[in-house]
Predict the 3D structure of the following.
Amino acid sequence: MRNFLIKYRTQVIFTLIGGIAGIGYWHFVGCSSGTCPITSHWYTMGSYGTAMGFLAGELIKKK
């Protein structure tokens, strides 16, 4: 497990930050009417933020 975290630390850090940012976005901005498909629920926005964080970590790792 330790070798995995050392090897993929950039992706793990960005994935965690993305998930937290997604839930924070839902909490502070979100969609109050409930009609927005992504931002109306915390779990969809958290999943979306996690995916975006992972992709950002992949982009930074490749440079």
Observations:
- The chain has a mean pLDDT of 87.
- The radius of gyration is 14 Å.
